[in-house]
Amino acid sequence: MCNQYSLLMEKIKEALSDDLLGKIVSIRGWVYRIRSSGKITFIVMRDSTGIIQCIASSENLNDEQMKEISSLTIESSIELSGKLRKEPRAVTGYEISLQSYKIYERNENFPIAKDLGEEFLLDNRHLWLRSREFTAVLKIRSTVFKAFADYFYKEDYYQVQAPMFVSTATEGGSSLFNVDYFGEKVNLTQSSQFYLETLIYSLEKVFTIAPSFRAEKSRTRRHLTEYWHAEGEAAWYSNEDMMADEEKMIKYIIDEVLKNNLEDLEIIKRDINKIKNIKIPFERIKYKDLIEKSKEFGMNLKYGDDLGADEEYGIMVHFDNPIFVTDYPESLKTFYHRPDPDNPGEILCHDLLAPEGYGEVLGGGERIYDLQQLLDRIKENNLNPEDYYWYVDLRKYGSIPHSGFGLGLDRLVMWICGLSNVRETIPYPRTIRRVKP
Ligand code: 4AD
In this predicted structure, what is the pLDDT of residue 7? Predict the structure, then answer.
């Protein structure tokens, strides 16, 4: 019986190897599938690295052991040892012929099965997320988070952290979550941008990965109330400089996923060519030109219309590569965006829209750095400059041109994985109707 924690165990992925053929391998994990036929029991075992078929027969096990093994249920936890052999009919081409085992826990009845309702699966998210597909998505997500940070470290950005309890809104009051903070009304942050802006005066180029909170009552396939926001801010950067860094970052993340997660992409049946063929530079299209172009797609948009999930879908199903939409009208964006001095009414900003109908994954642009211009925009938006005193101060002491962006990491994972709802990208999605488990 291999019942020592210290015993050398193979991860399943390592066991799937010609080098170990004919040798005794030991693995531990969970029963993924089990089927008995007469005197033989087939168990497909899973761990974090993969799945492998194991076969229990009376050749190696006595009657009592055979009974115990055949009565195992899905998601029971066990460790086992046996000889490795090739088996073309087995799910991953290899099979362990079971010789000894230890059961850690035997399930009564694992509640997750095929064809269960959406709500049931969401209530049981803590169990559902063990599925192979979810595991694959979470591995891709892990690569995306790491690659984002790696890219910006390579480009000499510093990673910084901003607070989540805040007293100002960056993206308008309608999507603020209020929190009772020892009797004072504060908010959960919508974006770390303003804090990143304070940090470029010492570090020049900074990024952060943090949650952002939006109380929008949007029930679309791409809205979460709590999402993961990757934001960057760079001193001396123009709108164009920022886009140049961003497109390289997106390409780098995709290349890292292709390098590290091919198997995972296969498990979730992603058409790999859709992301393999992504090319930089991304096309830049002015908002006003996009409105014109949308007519070719039979859409009825006019200048000044906001592009929501439906409109962006209607446009982006016609694209295979992301596009930057630039120069939005001032009326569509929040107060901190820098107006274009050469084109009154337009701002120096961009949204990155992902292809295949996915739409906006990132928004960014130049920030106002002139003191009076910022004060005017704050007032025009019926905000109180005193609430923003620290943000305004930045325009009084060594103000400089600068740009930044915010990338919705959940939306990026959704697009890279080709998923139909952003909820499928995050272990515990927070939406209007759900804060459990
Ligand atoms: O366009 P947004 O609102 O921009 C900002 O918050 C800026 N302050 C960011 C910055 O410049 N530092 O949000 C940026 C991105 C969007 O493009 C989208 O991908 C994502 O955040 N996002 C959401 N993702 C999931 N659920 C939501 N409710 C989201 N709202 C925005």
Answer: 56
**Cis before 211 (ω within 30):** no
Among 139, 149, 140, which Cα is nearest to 416's?
140
- Closest by CA position to 153, among listed 229, 230, 238: 230
Taking the domain 122-425, which CATH number applies?
A: 3.30.930.10
Our answer on whether the CB atom of 50 is closer than 6 Å to any ligand 1 atom is no
Place 2 in a pLDDT band, splitting at 50, 70 and 90. Answer: very low
Listed by start position, the domains of the chain span 12-105, 122-425
Same fold, 12-105 and 122-425: no
* The domain made up of 12-105 is a member of CATH 3.40.50.1240: no
pLDDT of residue 221: 94
Looking at residue 367, what is its pLDDT? 98
Q: Is 214 near ligand 1, meaning CB less than 6 Å away? A: yes
Q: What would the two tokens of residue 131 be?
A: 């599925």
Whether the bond between 385 and the residue before it is cis, its omega within 30 degrees of 0, is: no
Nearest CA to ligand 1 atom 24: 408
